[in-house]
Every structure is written in structure tokens, then in C-alpha cells.
Specification:
Layout (H helix, E strand, L loop, with lengths): L2 H90 L1
């Protein structure tokens, strides 16, 4: 092979290497952007899940307090009814 052919072959190999480097760099940049987008979506999802979990826990606590309060009120109403019935029975006799 002549020195001119070696130079052309060397240039061809260097061009090929640089082309591959550019393609790989672009591919990795695209992949990095996609992974960053996915990470952002997962972060938002985690935040929404945590918010929902906390809200659900607070709703459970509130429901328990309301149930306990209603139970006390029901018991008080039942006691008042019994007292009224006893008073009415005394008045009828």
C-alpha cells in the first residue's frame, strides 16, 4: 500500500470513530433526558401517593372521632327517652 492509501484509510477510520462518538453522545443525551423525565414523573407520583396516604389516615382518625361522638349522643338520647317514658308512666298512674 502506498502512503496516500494509508492516509486515506487513516482518515476514513478517524471519520468513522468521530461519527460513532457523535452518535453515541447523542444517544446517551436522549437516554439521559428520558431517564430524567421518568424520574420527575416518579417523584410526582410518590408525592401524590404520600399526600393521599396522609389524607386517608387523617380521614380515618376523623371518622373514628365522629363515630365515638355519635355513639355518645345516641346513648344520651336513649337515656333521655327512658327518662321521659318513666315520667310519662308516673303521670298516667
Amino acid at each position: 500500500m502506498t502512503p496516500d492509501r494509508f492516509d486515506r484509510l487513516e482518515n476514513l477510520m478517524m471519520d468513522l470513530k468521530e461519527s460513532l462518538e457523535r452518535e453515541m453522545r447523542e444517544g446517551f443525551q436522549t437516554m439521559a433526558v428520558r431517564l430524567e423525565n421518568q424520574s420527575s414523573r416518579l417523584d410526582r407520583h410518590a408525592a401524590l401517593w404520600q399526600t393521599g396516604h396522609r389524607w386517608s389516615g387523617r380521614m380515618d382518625q376523623w371518622a373514628e372521632r365522629v363515630d365515638a361522638s355519635l355513639e355518645v349522643k345516641d346513648r344520651q338520647i336513649a337515656e333521655l327517652r327512658e327518662r321521659i317514658e318513666r315520667i310519662e308512666k308516673k303521670n298516667l298512674q
